[in-house]
TrEMBL record, chains A, B, C, D:
<keyword id="KW-0378">Hydrolase</keyword>
<keyword id="KW-0658">Purine biosynthesis</keyword>
<dbReference type="InterPro" id="IPR002376">
    <property type="entry name" value="Formyl_transf_N"/>
</dbReference>
<dbReference type="InterPro" id="IPR004810">
    <property type="entry name" value="PurU"/>
</dbReference>
<dbReference type="Pfam" id="PF01842">
    <property type="entry name" value="ACT"/>
</dbReference>
<dbReference type="InterPro" id="IPR044074">
    <property type="entry name" value="PurU_ACT"/>
</dbReference>
<dbReference type="InterPro" id="IPR045865">
    <property type="entry name" value="ACT-like_dom_sf"/>
</dbReference>
<comment type="similarity">
    <text>Belongs to the PurU family.</text>
</comment>
<dbReference type="GO" id="GO:0006189">
    <property type="term" value="P:'de novo' IMP biosynthetic process"/>
</dbReference>
<feature type="domain" description="ACT">
    <location>
        <begin position="6"/>
        <end position="89"/>
    </location>
</feature>
<keyword id="KW-0554">One-carbon metabolism</keyword>
<dbReference type="Pfam" id="PF00551">
    <property type="entry name" value="Formyl_trans_N"/>
</dbReference>
<feature type="active site">
    <location>
        <position position="228"/>
    </location>
</feature>
<dbReference type="InterPro" id="IPR041729">
    <property type="entry name" value="Formyl-FH4-Hydrolase_C"/>
</dbReference>
<dbReference type="InterPro" id="IPR036477">
    <property type="entry name" value="Formyl_transf_N_sf"/>
</dbReference>
<dbReference type="GO" id="GO:0006730">
    <property type="term" value="P:one-carbon metabolic process"/>
</dbReference>
<dbReference type="GO" id="GO:0008864">
    <property type="term" value="F:formyltetrahydrofolate deformylase activity"/>
</dbReference>
Amino acid sequence: MKKTFRLVISCPDRIGIVAAVSQFLNERKGSITEASHHTDQESKWFFMRHEIDAESLSVDVATFREQFAPIAEEFDMKWYVKDSEVLPKVMLLATKESHCLNDIMHRWHTGELNCEIVGVIANHESLRSMVEWYNIPYHYISVPKEDKMPAFHQIEKCIDDAQADTIVLARYMQIFPEFLCQKYQHKVINIHHSFLPSFIGAKPYHQAAVRGVKLIGATCHYVTADLDAGPIIEQDVIRVRHSHTATDMVRLGKDIEKLVLSRGLRYHLEDRVIVHGNKTIVFAD
Amino acid sequence: MKKTFRLVISCPDRIGIVAAVSQFLNERKGSITEASHHTDQESKWFFMRHEIDAESLSVDVATFREQFAPIAEEFDMKWYVKDSEVLPKVMLLATKESHCLNDIMHRWHTGELNCEIVGVIANHESLRSMVEWYNIPYHYISVPKEDKMPAFHQIEKCIDDAQADTIVLARYMQIFPEFLCQKYQHKVINIHHSFLPSFIGAKPYHQAAVRGVKLIGATCHYVTADLDAGPIIEQDVIRVRHSHTATDMVRLGKDIEKLVLSRGLRYHLEDRVIVHGNKTIVFAD
Amino acid sequence: MKKTFRLVISCPDRIGIVAAVSQFLNERKGSITEASHHTDQESKWFFMRHEIDAESLSVDVATFREQFAPIAEEFDMKWYVKDSEVLPKVMLLATKESHCLNDIMHRWHTGELNCEIVGVIANHESLRSMVEWYNIPYHYISVPKEDKMPAFHQIEKCIDDAQADTIVLARYMQIFPEFLCQKYQHKVINIHHSFLPSFIGAKPYHQAAVRGVKLIGATCHYVTADLDAGPIIEQDVIRVRHSHTATDMVRLGKDIEKLVLSRGLRYHLEDRVIVHGNKTIVFAD
Amino acid sequence: MKKTFRLVISCPDRIGIVAAVSQFLNERKGSITEASHHTDQESKWFFMRHEIDAESLSVDVATFREQFAPIAEEFDMKWYVKDSEVLPKVMLLATKESHCLNDIMHRWHTGELNCEIVGVIANHESLRSMVEWYNIPYHYISVPKEDKMPAFHQIEKCIDDAQADTIVLARYMQIFPEFLCQKYQHKVINIHHSFLPSFIGAKPYHQAAVRGVKLIGATCHYVTADLDAGPIIEQDVIRVRHSHTATDMVRLGKDIEKLVLSRGLRYHLEDRVIVHGNKTIVFAD
């Protein structure tokens, strides 16, 4: 894959933004390999993502950052530019279920996910051997029912020591505490095993079986202090029939959970997701 | 299409039901063209639907009914047998939106739906010409905000006069009153423009846009006194993106509403749906 | 819907195109409501579509055209700019099957398709009444097996008299002759009832049933002299099972044919489709 | 999971089959947990699959087999009955790509696939460590271009030594020779990375990119001597856009390949697939 710079911008919509940015890139001989725009008509907010061939540019990422700053200021931009070769550092959290974890690790192992997996934190020992086969550090941190806070402080330290910038709850069966949600805002990605906002909370497949729905789904979203209510990144569904029990749904749902989480994570890692209020703009490829 | 008898059964599960029924059919030389079974393991309830080539049988439907009664009694069956050539009578209810109505009428017109459409009841005049092109009687019954009951009694009379046995709310923008829900239990089919149980009630696409979901859906269900909470017959979804406003969702959603309603209605008309508690068994072909 | 100008460009890829175009729009105060880019890495070709709020612009479409010409020349662009309120004129061709025709006419009737339907040409009389209900002129042009050319010349005249710029073969069961394919290049849209390139030619559902596929599909494509081999605009599929005969597939397939044709037609009418070699770039919304 | 007997039957259609079979089961107190029927109207052939609670039966599988034989003979049945606890023995074949292999092994490891994986045969060494982590024997059998037959005889011996009854080509990049196709008829399952019959043979994603299709797919089928033309078990598709190169399709396609192969394999292992001519009846749950 070619080295690119990813320039991601959001700002109040007004005339001249695209002209200013493309003029800037043009002056530095930037060859744009992917460009995406969106204007939210309701909030009058503008979003843009450019992927620029790094070799075509006459400047490095630090210089780019410095020189772009005045334009960003002029248009009141929230923005960043990233070098695609500086890999995001991902910390995975899991409990006992391995389908999402295995899926992510396998994609990473075969070069499909551009990131560094810096570790797995789990509140059980059962997945250690699988994780260690991938040469990924395994941190066993038990979360006792009666007093969970010390464990979460240990988790925080573990994340920070590893300098992780993306945290993935890969079917981690613990509610992430508010202080971590806030500290890592828009950096914690969860997979919920229902088509949100249906079936929030525990045992969604059981809820789905009781309601008699004809499709079940999964939702990849950023974690906020509000349970299963954060900005949605990706969703998908699969058909079920009257013959499927809650147990069957658990099995069928795994395929959707894996897919939806991996897809959402890839969008996040490639800087394709912009959070706006409680919604996301996803510039999928 | 060949004339068939449709034998639909539900009863407590126990050994011997299939043997008894198939023995009965065998003795009458019945050639089974479609057979479906389901056992609900939780409630230990058994469901069966047979479609039998009418010409192969040595008995007519009345004799069949009479002779089958003892078996039905032995196994505590809720059951019926229907002649596929006795067409169900369908009353359609609509407001101003024509996409579902047109879809159903066109399918019926081209022989895709095996039923008789006995009329359209609408609380506006705008769809009259379209309906009358199909030679279907159009009943304009206004439903004034301040006092809706007289209108619903008129609707009841209209349904009964036409001897309708299936009532379809084809985007009828009025809440069906409890007394009609009860009178026509499991005979009133509604299309709700969301993937239930998400976004119950008014303006579901607006709710979906606010929540930022990545798929929108539609749900075909039997109407009960509990709003949008009746047994689900069929559902489907369509992908949306950040660029889609609530208005776009309304447009995109229409395609799913039409499909889901027509599919659900077809299952109902072909006696493929059995209601069990608040769920359905759907023996789709 | 707001009046927009749609600027659609394709040209050899090189640095500076976006800067030049956005500078041009910026100088005329153009507010971009939708912008899409694509670079084909293999052919090094660049594609761009802008939708610009017409009221924001300080120029009308003719002046825009005149003033943009030098830029277009500089970059060797194939390009056009269109006023969204100048509606495309669509001629529909059909035989006896009405599902696609009815679907398109109903969408147009309810304001979903931004076009003028200037007529329906059919080689049977059976759809006349339905078409005339929509106040659309119906042209019966028989296509006798032994000598089809006079009919196609009559069709050509009919299209030209109506000044149609888009021709839709809505399940028109005649092969379009080469001279018309060439005359109306990239203006004739067909719906083929299979997932191309599977099952080219006659009776695709029958072919699908024989092969035992588990999904059937439909393909909307531009017609070329090479049968069912033109640039694909849109495709979709639906699941089938062993219980579905070719006849069932015909019925199930209709739903996909309608959807795929209407979606493809909408993309075409909104200038979202650019043909490049034998492929299309579709800037879907 | 409860122990069941699976009775799978195909025979010429005639009246009395269901009665005879259900009478037989009834006499032995068999509690039917799943029953599926199908009649192929064209060939007048009948197919039936029963899953019977083993504990409810008064006979073991050997006695069942013996006692059922006269009925089978009377109706000219091709049939078998299997104990669900006698696990099928699966041999996997792979080259270098690990996505399908890892997916199957992980499902098996977590108890989702009811089988015994007796080994992996590969023509490269690269997957050894992953396979051995699962404690599955790894057989490296090189297939030299100039003379492949000795390798295939070695493969045959390896399959037979392990007493494998199901052979899965999990992206095995070698054409299976005719003598093995014949020897293991309806026992060799392949995943082809296209929506067959489109794009038979090599590099289907490249072919798909050239043709400009809007969906790509995968096909799980039984291997026959006729390349990619055997009976199809399962298929699925995923949407692609003009921005996706052949390389992107390879990546996106993997998700569909895995899913389709695992689904097809599960149907096969649960005796849900009956081959009839070049088609399959799949009694999916």
